[in-house]
Amino acid sequence: MSEDTQNRVLERVRRLTGVAGFVLVVLGVACGLATFAILTGLTPLKPTPNSTALLMVLNGAVMTIMALVTMGQILFLIIERRRGTLGASLHLRLISLFSVIAMLPAILLAVFATTVLNRGLDALFSERTRSIGANDRIRIAQIGVAIELEGPPDRLVQPMGERPHLGDKGGPPAPDVADIAAPHEDALVGRRPIDPPDLDLGIVPTAIEDIVLGDGVGRDRPLDVLGVDPEILPPFESVITLTGEITRADHQTYRELPFNVPPGTKLIAVAFSYNKDNRTVIDLGLRDPQGQRGWSGGNKTHIEISDTNATPSYQPGKIQPGEWKLVLGIPNIREGQISSYEATITFSGGADTSTSTPAYAAPTLASPLRANANWRRGDFHAHTAHSDGSCDVAGARAPCPAINTFAAARDANLDFVAITDHNTITQLADIAAEQKNFPKTLLIPGTEITTFNGHANVIGNTSFLDFQLGSPRLPTLTPLFDQVKQQDAFISVNHPGLPSGEICMGCGWTVKDTDWSRVTAIEVINGSTLRTGGAEGPTSGIRFWDNLLKQGHHLTAIGGSDNHDATDTAGAKQSPIGKPATVVYATELSTKAIIAGVKSGRVFIDIGGMPGAILDVEAAAGTQRAVMGGELQLAEGETGAIVVSTSDLPVRARFAFVSENLTVQDANPVPTPAGYVRSASQVRFTLKTGAAFGYIRPEVRDETGKLLLLGNPIYVRPR
């Protein structure tokens, strides 16, 4: 090859390597920026092991090619120098000098930065802190918990509800945390809330807070918790005390006292006391982060809740960490009175070695006990240990187990009994557990909603209901009505004729603007009023009910013993279970059918204690037929007739009728022999001219006029 040809080839190669060098420089910068962005999380592409390896290969390839091109350029310079090309020697010397000048600062900067960073990090994080990542488990003595960390030590969590002093900026940190976090007095600079993404791990309780490490002058570095090892969680017990006072301004209001439950808590115990002078009363309940956990009113001052057991009135189950509330209801405090209170709350916890499941589970309603349609006798109002039910135990009063009520209903030959404890549903666990042991007695769930302005039974609910009427939680009854409807239950106003005051706060019904269209029933006969004043005495609910009927409302009359001691079967202190009894015509013996029967109104109340007695009526007008709770339409001047059917009545018992806006003929009391079924078709009625509605209802009385059976109305309106 001639010299000219060699020169042309070398010149062409030199140009190509020059272009390649420029391209490689641009490519190298691009690869560097891309690598930085990916490794720092600035792009959607996450720095996985595969992506990181690919980046290393690409960067290595670019650097290798750049090194080869550089060596080629140096080789060209050496060849030209040997050939004696003009300026070649000077060119090589200049490039060598420039390379040394450029590389020397970079080398010095790298050495200096490495030294400074190492010393700086050593000053900020102790050897013990750096070793956290290498250890599987560390223990915080004072906090009393062991936590497990994975990866770099980014966050350390204080898991207790009672937070130890963390130390402000410039102040000494808590010694238990300082031993682990850093040896410097100013290492611990504060705490801040857990970020929501941490909760996605499913292992970080919401109540805890981060511990932040820093140097006390603005720099900080939070530590990330990655796991909690329950097996090494040591037992702990902590106590808090809530105190305060109430005055007349708190009369008939609710007060909620928040407190924080630490993670790992297995048992909460509350001891409550207050000044009861001058008839001051404070009721008690608990709410957890999910809602109501129980209500004991004024009958319990000591409460315990665990995952498997709880004081009656309160629901067992997992103790969720976070903000709980002690709920105080103040039904009465007199003018000028100041009452102080104190609640001591103890948290106990430790390693969760239990394999048991919570004792409470919302029960399903019992399957029909009997499938045939018939009259079903029962009691819609009874209390147990889950509220204020009590009985004699070893000469002293003690909470009366629900099973006593179930047994009393069975022994009274009742077809059903509703357990309606005050503002709680914890009796449902007993209902679910014991129904199989009472195959002939239907155990119906319920709640007596107890407010400062009245009491009402909800029959058939299986979850807690709002009861704090007049508070932001329940400003009116509308949300309660909605809850009742959602659960296919019904609501009945209890003992509305009772006076309301210090002796029985809220016993009478004084709720303003009650929407009676959403009320199904009225408890017109209550066991306590039956004992004190009789069925038609001054505290009876019959007049209250009749006044509502006269306003055009359709409301079913029912009765309830309101029994608080199922062992008092003789009625020495209160009305026994089943007295009075409510008799419902139901298509089957099930909770659903009993509720449907009450809503239909085909119901009568047995006040006289006659287990076999039946009272039924049917009204007719032309082709129309209606039973109790039903309706007839009458044209002007048209006559309707009533047929009364009875059985097992006492000798010389008599029918009677109560009516409104009707003209009734032949309605004089009709004597009926015992055991005789009588048709009183001679009783006829017409709707008074101009009346928008009317009703007629039957009664059975003894020879002295005492009320024995009370039936529900047949309603009449103009055609």
Description:
The protein is of the alpha+beta class. Among the domains are: 122 residues, no CATH class; 104 residues, no CATH class; 115 residues, Jelly Rolls (Sandwich); 107 residues, Coagulation Factor XIII, subunit A, domain 1 (Coagulation Factor XIII, Chain A, domain 1, Distorted Sandwich), CATH 2.70.50.30. The protein contains 12 helices and 37 strands. It has a 15-stranded mixed β-sheet that branches. Strands 28-27-30-34-32 form a 5-stranded antiparallel β-sheet, with no helix packed on it. Helix 1 runs antiparallel to helix 2. The relative contact order is 0.06. About 19% of the residues have low confidence.
Labels describing this entry:
Jelly Rolls; 15-stranded mixed β-sheet; 719 residues; single chain; 5-stranded antiparallel β-sheet; alpha+beta; 24% helix; 12 helices
What's the average pLDDT?
Answer: 78
Structural class of the secondary structure composition?
alpha+beta
DSSP helical segment count: 12
Strand content: 25-35%
